[in-house]
Amino acid sequence: MRLSRSLIPTLKENPAEAQIASHRLMLRAGLVRQTASGIYAWLPAGWRVLQNIANIVREEQDRVGCQELLMPTIQSAELWRQSGRYDAYGAEMLRLADRHGRELLYGPTNEEMLADLMRQSVKSYRELPQTLYHIQWKFRDEMRPRFGVMRGREFLMKDGYSFDLDYEGAVVSYRKQMLAYMRIFQRLGVKAIPMVADTGPIGGDLSHEFIILAPTGESQVFYDAAYEAMDFTKEAVDHESPADLERFFGEVTKNYAATDEKHDEAVWAQVSEQREGRGIEVGHIFYFGTKYSAPMGLTVAGKDGSQIVPHMGSYGVGVSRLVGALIEAHHDEAGIIWPDSVAPFPAVIVNLKVGDAGCDALCNEAYAAFGGRALLDDREDRAGVKFADADLMGHPWQIVVGPRGAANGMVELKRRATGEKVELSLADALAKIL
Ligand code: 5CA
């Protein structure tokens, strides 16, 4: 992408409305713009990050055997009356009516809809277990939308739903999701601790939230210091069998970690190295048995002809919240420091003298080498502005092309995360990055 022709409106000043670093930086780096309270437009660079995160989530869901589908954002009130949640959900639900006066809603979650889709088509025990997920926009009319995309009203969620024949099967599905989540956060370059959590309006009695520790987080959490040293990457390797999954689950949840709603003073008193702090909830998984399948009449025929009511679980990742959470975890005074796995562009190519034949040619050569995936700063601006914007936007690599070096095919390569700079040939720089 050529920066001179891109809608990446960077800001020099801190916007007054932003209270936390990630919100400030998302606005300043031109990733998003608010269009109404808690509702954001994702501008080209922000949209790339969002898609990169969604793709990692998708790959890890598929890897544990889940199926992707896409359900609509608009749902019928009738479905929610069947589960009994239509009235219970309250003011957070955005309720609509069509021209015929039929009641609709903008989905805050999809338990009912997927139970309905399964009810229509799945008839026999032979067809289970199955886990399906989608990555779709949700709307919750939050009382206090704040911190930018962290607590939005419209937000992107990965929500998955598992269907098993019994409790034992459902627990295996739950643990598979736990495993997938550890892999997702590992690839995103953040540490998210699974904590015993409350189930709120989703319901059920087994639940974990995945929490990234951060002073600006909205959740109050209590955990054993052992988690600070724990290497989740070691745990998130291959786990295929139920026995392996059980061992894995035991390992990652063996120490005390709970959100304030589930905090247990008696157990806490036994923890030798207590830690208390704030965290960002980036994922939440639930097992709730037959809470939706029973009232909605979802059954399958068992081996002996009896009717089995499937056990369900649901599994959420806050995809858009993660953009903010990753920035909270990866930034400095100058701006964002994107992990390579989600960066909107793998590198920026900074042309220090647009119009200089040598600079233009070397920049074009570099740009072509990335197959157009890099960002080319071809603006006719001062070098200082370009350096500041490159740091602000947080590209993992900066390839700086000036007239003196360009004459000899040399560039300066800077690694954003470390600040390390080296002078080398374009070919060597590309070899290092690609
Ligand atoms: N149906 C279940 C699981 S699929 C569910 O809706 N769970 S949830 O309510 O916990 O939401 C899942 C994740 O979405 C949360 O962990 C959080 O990361 C994200 N999320 C929830 N509300 C918001 C919001 N207002 N803004 C941004 N992200 C949110």
Topology (SSEs and partners):
Elements: H1 21-28, E1 32-36, E2 39-42, H2 44-63, E3 67-68, E4 74-76, H3 77-83, H4 85-88, E5 94-97, E6 103-106, H5 111-121, E7 130-139, E8 154-164, H6 167-187, E9 192-196, E10 206-213, E11 219-224, H7 226-229, H8 232-235, H9 242-252, E12 257-259, H10 265-268, E13 274-289, E14 300-301, E15 307-308, E16 311-318, H11 319-329, E17 331-332, E18 335-336, E19 347-351, H12 357-369, E20 375-377, H13 383-393, E21 397-401, H14 403-406, E22 410-415, E23 421-425, H15 426-433
Parallel strand pairs: 3-7, 19-20, 19-21
Antiparallel strand pairs: 1-2, 4-6, 5-6, 7-8, 8-16, 9-10, 10-13, 11-12, 11-13, 13-16, 14-15, 17-18, 21-22, 22-23
Bound molecules: 5'-O-(N-(L-cysteinyl)-sulfamoyl)adenosine (5CA).
**CATH classification, class level of the largest domain:** Alpha Beta
Helix- and strand-based class? alpha+beta
* Shape designation: globular
Q: Which ligands accompany this protein? A: 5'-O-(N-(L-cysteinyl)-sulfamoyl)adenosine
- Care to count the β-strands? 23
Could you name the ranges where pLDDT drops below 50 across 5 or more consecutive residues? Answer: none
Give the % helix: 25-40%
Number of helical elements: 15
Full CATH superfamily name of the largest domain = Bira Bifunctional Protein, Domain 2
